[in-house]
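Repro:
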Amino acid sequence: GKKESTASNTSSGAPRERSPARLSGTMLLHMAAAASPVTLSGTYEVISGVETVWQKPDGAPRGLLFLAHGCQHGAIDFWPQATKCTQCVGLPEEVRITRYALQAGWAVVAMSSADRAFSRCWSFEEDGPAVAGALKTLRAAKRSVRKVARKHLISIFRGGGGGGVPPRRWF
């Protein structure tokens, strides 16, 4: 058969070596998902008035991932129904995010916006202090979460209503 070259031609026709392929974060998460199955079993709590669902990975967590839902959704969308979260509904895309993060070794916490009756969208002014207080309470009450949150804390906002990245004072 024909052997493939690892070189490509430049505009002058001279061969150029290709750099090694780089793995994206998504590719790494897919690899983690294929390599280590995980049981999703979120713990539902209302912490300082904030609806919260959280779970640690099976091994030592590499950090804490904060998940914020899009409008018309909530924290319960990120886990399927389980013994510790009978309220959870587990929407496919949100569950996939949670599964991949746990398989990659992250502890995961999702919280719901204060508006649970109308748009269920986030308001930085109203939700910011509530989320900050709930995260502080969660870290204080759960030794394992407190140790993880000191390592790394990242966040993912679903949808466009949240405006992207939460203010640093939330954490």
